[in-house]
Amino acid sequence: MRQHILNGWLVAAMLVLVCLLGLTAYTEVRGAPAHISCLHGATDAGKPTAKIAVGAATCRGLEPGA
Q1: Share of the chain above pLDDT 70, in %
Q2: Among candidates 65, 20, 63, 10, which has minimal Cα distance to 40?
């Protein structure tokens, strides 16, 4: 009986870890476009020479070589 309870807690803990990992990945990916646009010269993927609106404060410290 005790083994079943421990297995239940183990499964619950693993489920919580997977949810936290997913939440962390989601928040990192959500912030990635601004970071990527700073690293790649703030160009739009559809139009290589067009500049997209990214504030200077957003890119501060993220530029290549900074």
Answers
A1: 47
A2: 63
Domain boundaries along the sequence of the chain: 1-30, 32-66
DSSP letters spanning the chain: -HHHHHHHHHHHHHHHHHHHHHHHHHHHHHTHHHHHHHHTTSB-SSSTT-B----HHHHTTTSTT-
Q: What is the pLDDT of residues 19-46, one digit of tens each?
A: 999 999 998 888 776 666 666 555 555 5
pTM of the shown model: 0.50
Report yes or no: 44 and 50 within 8 Å, Cβ to Cβ.
Answer: yes
Question: What residue has token string 């949810």?
Answer: 19
Per the CB < 8 A criterion, the answer to whether 38 and 63 are in contact is yes
